[in-house]
Specification:
This protein is α/β, with parallel strands linked by helices. The chain has six helices and four strands, in the order ααββααββαα. A four-stranded mixed β-sheet has the order 1-3-4-2, covered by helices on one side. Helix 3 crosses helix 4. The longest helix is centred in the first third of the chain and has 31 residues, at 17-47. The radius of gyration is 25 Å and the shape is elongated. The protein starts with a helix and ends in a 10-residue tail after the last helix.
């Protein structure tokens, strides 16, 4: 009967307990290595970009930085720093819609990409996530965002007119956040002056 099957299953499990524990350790180690590899890859990508802070998921515990543990904890709250053009509530609602109200912390790379897609959708094509921080104590995940402010504007190859003539055709200025639609309009405006064979923005 059922009792006999249960007893047989229990005996079989006890006979192979060593193998079961070994498999659990292997899977735990594999998961931890995967998280570390992911963080190293993102760190390398960020370090390769000049003027960008490295992206890493670090713990703000008193004991110092640590990776997300093998069994990822749940995110209880999400914060954003550096947001001006897209409200925190919009980004938070997007993450909750895609990942649930309390997603596992190790899904932070997917959340990061979702946030960037939101910025791309609003045409802020230079937006970057400069860091991601994790606080074990409150289960809080914080994203630090650079929305893509224009640090400097230069005009190269202009031999036909003064720079200010070009400048007045551009509908944005240094210090503003780059928007791809406005950049496209700037190219149309410059071409429309008839002063140049072509205009490029780099």
């Amino acid at each position: 009967g059922i009792d006999t099957l249960v007893a047989a299953g229990q005996a079989e499990a006890e006979a192979h307990i060593g193998e079961i524990l070994r498999l659990i350790r292997e899977r735990t180690t594999s998961h931890t290595d995967g998280v570390r590899d992911s963080l190293r890859a993102v760190q390398h990508e960020a370090d390769s970009s000049s003027g960008r802070l490295p992206v890493a998921l670090a713990s703000r515990n008193a004991g110092g930085p640590s990776l997300v543990p093998p069994v990822a904890p749940l995110v209880r709250s999400i914060g954003f720093t550096g947001t001006h053009f897209i409200a925190d509530s919009v980004l938070r609602r997007r993450i909750e819609t895609e990942f649930g109200a309390s997603p596992p912390a190790d899904r932070w790379p997917e959340m990061r990409e979702s946030i960037l897609r939101c910025y791309r959708g609003e045409r802020y094509s230079l937006a970057r996530i400069t860091s991601v921080e994790w606080a074990d104590s409150g289960g809080r995940l914080d994203f630090v965002i650079d929305e893509g402010r224009i640090a400097q504007m230069r005009y190269e190859g202009n031999t036909r007119t003064k720079d200010y003539v070009i400048r007045r055709e551009i509908p944005f200025d240094e210090g503003e956040v780059f928007n791809i639609d406005r950049a496209s309009q700037a190219m149309v405006n410059i071409q429309s002056t008839g002063l140049f064979d072509y205009a490029l923005m780099d």
